[in-house]
Design brief:
344 residues; mainly alpha; two-stranded antiparallel sheet; 2 strands; globular
Length: 344
Amino acid sequence: MLSLLQDGITNGAIYALLGLALVLVFAVTRVILIPQGEFVTYGALSYAMLATGQVPGTVQLAVVMGLVAFALDLVFARKSLHARLVMRSAALNVAFPVALLGLTYALVGPNTPVAINIALALLIVAAIGLFLYRIAFQPIAHTSVLVLLIASVGCHLALQGLGLVFFGAEGLRGPALSNAAVTAGPLRFTGQSLAVYGLTVAAIVALWLFFGFTKTGKALRATAVNRLGARLVGIRTTLSGQIAFLLASVIGAISGILIVPITTLYYDTGFLIGLKVFIAAIIGGLVSYPLTAVAAILVGIVEAFSSFYASNFKEVIVFFLILPVLVLRSLAAPEVEEEKDYAR
């Protein structure tokens, strides 16, 4: 039972990280980020390919998406083009991904240090997340939650299909971050599991400090509370959305890098992970970070025990957790009027 509890807490820590990202994106942009699972697989499998000396297709995807984002900037700002705006857009959307492509080709190799491979994977996925918001969500940021959800589903399907092209149908595993091990009574903690716990706690503390003590973090909180009010006081809600997607993509990539040495990941594994994270986020009401983190740990523990005692019904048992929560919420608020927020 202790071993199952240990596995559940390890999985739950990963789900907690992803749950925080999901709640963050929804609070700031009203987007239910279904492609969060793709950030996990892209980060994990890009890291695994870099570790074998191969250049992942995701870095070329980042370049293409950057070019599309640059073209969109030119189209939307064609009536008031300024050299400074064009140069800034070119630097972010063109120069950055092209430099990342060159850096990847220059550094990739079978003997490249793990730290460099991790940094490259994080930068690649961060660029994809940033450009994804610019291309798919920023132009429709004023629309309803339903339209944003449909766009999110479309992005998920597109990224999953591209994942099959980039990584193939075979699963991949990456090298462990640490080969150390610690024994405590009947339990054995590997260096990878300790890295999961440590990075999860560090990320939560870092997010708490970011939102509580930085101007950008406070701007994100203000946007989450009231987009129109934030815009009226001078906060760029577009920039807030970009930062939210950037953080979500980095958190997803970190989670994938933590998972891929433990288990084999496939191009479509992220969708199932994302669904389990979504359950935790729903339990937290898509607004509460602490409740989402606790719910994520609960989901991980239930998954571990159901895998042992009823493996054939593991997914059914995990997804069943969402039903009583939905019933209670529907009884508590039988009539919910959709918020009409047209502020970009």
